[in-house]
Amino acid sequence: MPGAICGILCRMETQPIDALEINPDSAPQASIIWLHGLGADGNDFAPLIPQLGIVDPLAVRVVLPHAPRRAVTINNGMVMRAWYDISAADFRAFEDEPGIHDSARLLGALIQREIEHGVPAERILLAGFSQGGAVVLHTGLRYPQRLGGILVLSAYLPLAASLPAERSAANADIPIMLAHGRQDPVVPMPWAMRSRDYLEQLGYTVEWRDYPMPHAVCAQEIGDIRDWIVKVLAG
Fold first, then answer.
1. Which CATH class is domain 4-69+96-234?
2. What are the φ/ψ torsions at residue 45 (nearest 5 degrees)?
């Protein structure tokens, strides 16, 4: 397998966060910080990274953090890895604003860590699935330095009402890809489409992809993700 996987421990605010890190054989020229979905952890997308064929050919470091453990209301208060709480099936109606902000700070600390390790902010891509996709979209559009791009899989835009006042001019034209399953029962595709339309109304350019799948990732999508990453890093 190209690249080496190791464990890391990043200090963020007052709590630590564990992550996997997949490193290229040579010095990284770009980084991708990839957030998993509810109840999973950073291992969830580790098997997908070699399929993208980007680690060594493009000298990309991939950071796969594990979300903090918290009680999730909709799951009867069960403690699991989650980027924020969900209290109802329509989690857009009852959003855990403090939890989303906490995870945005954690992600911001990871971005800063990559910058301190020599990767320019504009060569850092944010990627995420489901809850992780929501967090990277929320954070990336508000981040004060220009980032490389935002990849959102099977997710939506959280705290949308506050975006016009909080968005960053530095990322006004950041590349964004939204990908979604047409049969997604967890985050219905119309939610993602409304997020896409809202972003476009605010002037963002969004690449949209949809696939005949549920709340998952499919082979065609993996190819499209690779093509998008290669295009963004080449640009």
1. alpha beta
2. -105, 0
